[in-house]
Amino acid sequence: MSTTKRLLSLDVFRGLTIAFMILVNCPGSWSSVYGMLLHAEWHGCTPTDLVFPFFLFIVGIAISFSLSRRKAESADKGKVYRKIISRTLWIIGIGLLLNGAFKFNLATWRIPGVLFRIGIVYGICAMIYMVTTARQQLWIAAAFLLGYWALMTLVPVPGQGYASLEMGKDLGAWLDRLVFGGHVWRHAKTWDPEGLLSTVPALATCIGGILAGTWIRGSMEAFAKWTAIFAVGFLLVLGGLLWGEVFPINKQLWTSSYVLYHSGWALLTLGTVWWLVDVKGYKGWTKPFVWFGMNPLFIFVQHSVIVKIMLAIKIDGSSSYAWIYNNMFLSWLSPKNASLAFALMHVGINLFVAWVLYKKKVFIKV
Prior knowledge:
By secondary structure, the chain is mainly α. The protein is built from 13 helices and 2 strands. Helix 1 (about 10-25) crosses helix 10 (about 285-295).
């Protein structure tokens, strides 16, 4: 397979991830949601807990495909590094603006967040990819996971005197309070699920995607690639479950066992999509997900802005978000089905915009 050939399955996988992200982020009411569409409260993992790591895994695959030619060139790579830094800063900047949109309060303006993490992880992993071999990348990812495990389970939390994995009492939460103060996730107030320390194992998630992309770009026969992807995916899921017995699978902490677990599922999902779409050619069902997958950053920002606007606009004393849910969905559906239908409405709105952009060949990048 050519190193420059675009994988349709990567766009489909990315689009599936974006669609599911919108579905789980936009329920009519958080008190009426089917369990699989909620995050695990602390330890454990639901399908919803796979959305963000899948996206970071895809970022890694995209790094492998987009930078492979430039990495192989012997010319000065300064332009590539400047582009990586520029893109990193743009993603972080957009995330900060989004965090402060419509309800800006300097005292509580959230600094970390989804785009903050994506930007940091992209920048560091792209640099790692440019200067290391695949074998070195594997060792770096292993060092991140083992080092994080040691920090979280062996290092006493300052002011507490012992290591802890309890909510708000772990080393990462302490570091978030030290560095960010009140500029963290408003629902937690004393820690952030996209905090600094848990970004370390998130780097391993992205490196896993880089390694997967490198493997897929290789010259091995398709069936052998597919078999290896599924075998490694299965082993990673199993490894995550086993490691989880001593270092619990936890999305909020982004534990090392969670990295193995979600990376395994990412490989199994990507392997399935890749085999169906790029190998067997079953493409008829893929169009909506391609539309999403071609403009992922824009769609992510757009869906967040739409929600913020709906929450800001008032109708009869309540937000338009609540008014539409109560009057157009809850009035004739059961609470959970109404909440799901409302979320599907958001998927449809964003899909329409993605379709328009695709038809006009507008692909927004930073």
